Structures are given as structure tokens and as C-alpha cells.
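hiii, so i know i said id send this last week but things got crazy w the move. better late than never?? heres the sequnce for the chain we talked about at the cafe, plus the structure i predicted for it. fair warning i was half asleep when i ran it
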Amino acid sequence: MPLRYKYSRRPEIRAEASVRVAHWVRGHMGDADGISVGVSGSECGHAACGGNDTIILLMRAGEPPVRVKIAKPIEMVTQAEVADALMSARRSRPAAS
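okay and structure toks below
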């Protein structure tokens, strides 16, 4: 049986949601100079993929990127879920020496 990937039928809604989530990330981080934010959604119709997720990448030159995953389609993510995910990621990172 071939794998079938479910692509968003409304890419403009997904793009709008991505911008909205990135705005929330920036608002939560405050004045974080030098950090690039990337937001994307992953869709996979195969059971092994785990469904639709929202992926947030925080990138700063010279450091490994921080990947934050929210197990929910990007269109359905709330501002509170973004804040919770970022706080969890911050707690799990080792302190800078």
C-alpha cells in the first residue's frame, strides 16, 4: 500500500497560521536579538508519523537550533500552547556556562 500524505487544501490558511505563531513566539521571547524563528507544520497520513504537528525552530548564529514541537496542526495551535512549549524548551536546555 503506498503512503499517502495529506497536504493542506488551504495553503493560505496555513501560511497565515505560521505567521501568527511566529508572532506569538517573538512576543513570548521579548527582545531576543540575533534569533531567527521558523514555524512550520508537518502533515503525514501514515500512522508511524504521529499525525499533524507544529514545529518551531529557534536559531542563533554559532549555536545549535532549538526545535520545539507541538502535537497539533498549526492552524489549531493557541497562544497559550506556544508559551507552554517555549517554557518547557527553556527549562530542558542546559544553562550556558
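btw Confidence is low (pLDDT under 50) at residues 1-7. thought thatd interest u
miss u guys!!
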